[in-house]
Inverse folding.
């Protein structure tokens, strides 16, 4: 497996982690927050294309991969998946499913084979395998498939509309998120936490906390709880 970054120095016994989807809002925040902490010994980031820039950190290892044919991944104990797209960006329902279901499940299986016992994934508010909405149905089917893998600890985050600057990541803006941001700034305090748009940074913090807490079995963290867990 090609590695774009080689660490030097003495070996560390700190946690090794795998991250997929670091080019997106939540994944980018996960990468930054993990590297800002002291408990990560190595962070292996899987991307579909080389990043334009990357932090200069000896713990960071960039791997450019094809999620439809993943190689054997480096040994790790925890992993987080922030892969995701939209039908508009993907171009079709089939292309959307290839990312939000197939690639997520492929990464989870490869992570498990690499020794991961604690796995977290970013899903969506309203995810359900029986939903009449294609987007929510695929998310729900993805959640069900992950549950079938038998991780010791599985965290599923279901955020509401994400807030953050996609433009700085070279991503197209999403109309729904722009509307959510415009409403939240003056009126967010009036909205229930369960539906309130949420900062990607808060989702990332909540995922890290949930992985650290390592509750056995399945833990579904709805958007309202993400707001609390992800509070600075």
């Amino acid at each position: 497996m090609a590695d774009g970054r080689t660490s030097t120095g003495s070996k560390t016994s700190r946690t090794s982690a795998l991250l997929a989807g670091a080019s997106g809002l939540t994944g980018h925040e996960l990468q930054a927050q993990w590297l800002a902490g002291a408990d990560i010994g190595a962070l292996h980031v899987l991307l579909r294309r080389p990043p334009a820039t990357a932090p200069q950190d000896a713990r960071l290892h960039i791997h450019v991969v094809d999620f439809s044919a993943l190689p054997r991944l480096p040994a790790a104990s925890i992993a987080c998946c922030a892969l995701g797209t939209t039908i508009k960006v993907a171009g079709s329902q089939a292309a959307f499913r290839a990312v939000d279901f197939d690639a997520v499940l492929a990464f989870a299986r490869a992570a498990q084979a690499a020794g991961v016992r604690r796995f977290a994934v970013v899903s969506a508010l309203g995810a359900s395998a029986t939903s009449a909405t294609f987007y929510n149905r695929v998310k729900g089917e993805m959640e069900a498939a992950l549950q079938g893998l038998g991780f010791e600890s599985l965290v599923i985050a279901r955020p509401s509309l994400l807030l953050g600057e996609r433009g700085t990541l070279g991503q197209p803006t999403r109309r729904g998120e722009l509307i959510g941001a415009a409403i939240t700034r003056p009126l967010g305090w009036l909205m229930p936490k369960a539906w309130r748009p949420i900062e990607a940074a808060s989702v990332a913090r909540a995922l890290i906390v949930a992985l650290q807490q390592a509750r056995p079995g399945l833990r579904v963290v709805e958007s309202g709880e993400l707001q609390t867990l992800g509070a600075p």
In short: The chain has one domain: 15-229.
